[in-house]
Automatic annotation (TrEMBL):
Pfam families (UniProt xref): MS_channel_2nd (PF00924)
Gene3D superfamilies, per database record: 1.10.287.1260, 2.30.30.60
UniProt keyword list: Cell membrane, Membrane, Transmembrane, Transmembrane helix
UniProt domain Mechanosensitive ion channel MscS: residue ranges: 124-186
Protein name per Swiss-Prot or TrEMBL: Mechanosensitive ion channel
Bilayer disposition of the protein: Multi-pass membrane protein
GO CC, any one term: plasma membrane
Cellular location(s): Cell membrane
Principal location listed in the UniProt entry: membrane
Similarity comment: family membership: Belongs to the MscS (TC 1.A.23) family.
GO molecular-function terms, A-Z: mechanosensitive monoatomic ion channel activity
Organism listed in the record: Persicimonas caeni
Stretches that traverse the bilayer: 38-58, 79-100
Amino acid sequence: MGTGTGDAMFTHMTAYALLAQATPEAQAVIQTLQMINLGKVLTAAVIIALAYGLNHLVDNTIERFSEGVARRRLVLKKLSSFAKLSIFVAASFLVVVTFLAGKEEVLLGVMGTLGLAVGFALKDTASSIMAGILILVDRPFGVGDRIYFGEVYGEVKEIGLRAVRVRTPGDEMVSIPNNKFLTEAVASANAGSLDMLVGMQFYIAVTEDFQLAKKLVYEACVTSKYVFLERPVNILIEDVARDSAFTTVITCKAYVIDTRFEKDFITDVTERVKRMFRKHDIQAPYAREMMVEEPERC
């Protein structure tokens, strides 16, 4: 028994000696772990749950309200991004304070040690978070904007802490890491405005009445329920070489009243133009050459 007791005392003394020789950062971590108890864990869990619920409440409330106020929809969506970022920062701060309240020296030591470790382990994630903050501050684009980024085109649905989520016209949700926007070019089609310029091209044979065709395209555009008439409607005409022959291209440039109706606007105008061209016998390129005469009946 005496030998066992002596070994135990020697082990404890050795452990205390090792702890005494530990670095300040290691001591801070040990003190922090000693401060963790069930009450603080439950408090932190409640803070996280409340932040998660508040995040969804803010997101859903702003989403519903923005649909009822069309002209303020993009502004409200940008407000949603700022609100969610603020909730995340506030919740993170409260969780840290919950565990380290009254221990400023320990707080500084732990934050320094963990910050260094997390910085190396999650440098890409940290870079994306900082890039997300820069996007919200610098605003090269915002929630609701239509952007071109590489081969991706679509509406920005969310500017998150790690990635920007873009919904394509094919209803696909694409996530792009925030730090990509710091080194690559991005184009915004509407730059924060609700309306957006849309280009549509129509091809006719060079022998057709281009003045009539231009008039029909203009009428089809300005009578669409999706056109934004407070902006100009421009009709351009040019002859281009296609397949070793010339074709007349009529380009219609007009603004859609809401970026969400881009494809509906194009479809509506295209249908109107096709009906009017058919009514006035305006042929597409090579249409006359491709017509096959019916054989004479005996």
